[in-house]
């Protein structure tokens, strides 16, 4: 038992890791870019953020490299 965790609370989880390559689900992008979805969509429309890759009728993903580039540019 860990004495540093108050009773009734859950232990902390590891921070989210962005993969170096591949695709990232739309919902996970907001773990790395802490803005509202409406702001994200508005920036997409302006060409500031990448557009998604359709994986199905409702599934959207982004290239991990594009998300990393946004974070490196300081957008996130």
For the biggest β-sheet, the strand order reads 1-3-2
Distance between the termini: 37 Å
Give the CA-based shape. elongated
Summarize the biggest pleated sheet.
3 strands, antiparallel
State the main characteristics:
single chain; 76 residues; alpha+beta; 3-stranded antiparallel beta sheet; 3 strands
Q: What this model shows, in words?
A:
- Helix content is 33%, strand content 12%.
- It is α+β, with helices and mostly antiparallel strands and 76 residues long.
- Strands 1-3-2 form a 3-stranded antiparallel β-sheet.
- β2 (53-54) and β3 form a beta hairpin.
- The protein is elongated and about 50 Å long.
- The mean pLDDT is 83.
Layout of secondary structure:
Elements: E1 23-25, H1 26-32, H2 37-45, E2 53-54, E3 60-63, H3 64-72
Antiparallel strand pairs: 1-3, 2-3
Summarize, please.
This protein has about 80 residues and is an alpha+beta fold. It has helices spanning about 25-30, 35-45, 65-70, and strands spanning about 25, 55, 60-65. A three-stranded antiparallel beta sheet has the order 1-3-2.
């Amino acid at each position: 038992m860990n004495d540093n965790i108050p009773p009734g609370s859950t232990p902390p989880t590891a921070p989210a890791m962005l993969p170096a390559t591949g695709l990232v689900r739309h919902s996970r992008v907001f773990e790395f870019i802490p803005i509202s979805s409406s702001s994200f969509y508005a920036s997409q429309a302006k060409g500031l953020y990448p557009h998604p890759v359709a994986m199905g009728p409702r599934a959207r993903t982004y290239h991990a490299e594009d998300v990393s580039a946004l974070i490196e540019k300081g957008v996130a």
